[in-house]
Amino acid sequence: MALSDLSLEELVRYLPTVEEPHDFDHFWRRTLTEARSHDLEVGCHQVSTPYRTVTVWDVSFSGYAGNRISAWLTTPRGLDGPLPAVVEFVGYGAGRDLPGASLWWASAGYAHLVMDSRGQGSSWGGGGDTPDPHGSGPSVPGVMTRVPDLTAVMPDVPFLCHFRRALEVCENDPYDEITRYLSVRRPAVDQVFATLSYFDAVNFSKRANAPAFFSVGLRDLTCPPSTVYAAFNHYAAEKEMKIYEFNDHEGGLSHQKLAQIAWLGRNLGRTDS
Fold it and tell me: Which of 11, 39, 171, 254 is 20 to 30 A from 50, alpha carbon to alpha carbon?
């Protein structure tokens, strides 16, 4: 496909004004406080897999409103003591998949927690196990998850950035779900964008304090490059962008995973990376 967004020269300078609610920080403090009011009640048991170099644990815990969230914890066999941990949230519509489906991080010497996102896991991949009991009214699917207190962040062709721009230039799902929703609910436009602004990754980027390693596909028709650069250029901490000039939303795939492993190793001071 051809380039369908701004040129690279324009992207690196792209710093749009993005709607931000006046109570953004209060909303998230209140939401996280409520979520933390529930005991985690962590469940964890080892599962059998055919993989000889890793151990996989079926993990569950109580999240927002006390609802149970599922994850796989994969650790390398034969390594003693504490390990650096990578927490991974997979793409829109996917779930944690099968135990051992992702071996990259454990094979590189990390503890790897691959998460379900509530209400996701039925669109592609190997599925998930976490329902969303709090859906309300006629709607289309969507999710936003925030993890605090990170050492580093690796947004890979990220979603949920600069919604207004995404709807202007993107005709693909999942952003087109919002377009279709508003095509029926015409009076709700301002309310919808006001609500989405609480989940816009650009507004989180402005508050970042951990180093980040972004990636972008310059021919991405699912998450347009200008939306990715909106978050990247507003990112308040140390940052780096890996550019895949000729790729769509698949980005760098295995090349990006290896780049992430090398980048994180350097940031953690791991001499083997």
Answer: 254
Rounded mean pLDDT for each run of 10 residues along the chain, 273 residues in total: 88 97 96 90 95 96 88 92 92 86 95 84 62 49 48 96 96 93 96 97 96 97 97 97 97 97 94 60
CA distances, 81 to each of 48, 114, 150 (Å)? 22, 21, 20
Cβ pair 159, 92 in contact under 8 A: yes
The domain at 1-37+146-273 falls in which architecture? 3-Layer(aba) Sandwich (3.40)
Of residues 102, 114, 105, the one with CA closest to residue 59: 114
CA dist., res. 160 & res. 197, Å (int): 10
- pLDDT of 270 reads 82
Contact 183, 210 (CB under 8 A): no
Strand partners for 212: 153, 239
**Rounded mean pLDDT of the chain?**
89
In 3D space, the residue among 254, 144, 157, 246 whose CA is nearest the CA of residue 203 turns out to be: 144
Domain positions in the chain: 1-37+146-273, 38-144
CA trace torsion 154, 160, 164, 166 (10° rounding)? 80
Q: How far is CA 131 from the centre of its chain?
A: 18
Per the CB < 8 A criterion, the answer to whether 169 and 230 are in contact is no
Token pair listed for 40: 């985690």
Q: In 3-state terms, what secondary structure has residue 199?
A: helix
Structure tokens at 26: 């209060």
pLDDT 10s digits, 120-143: 656 545 666 666 666 543 333 333
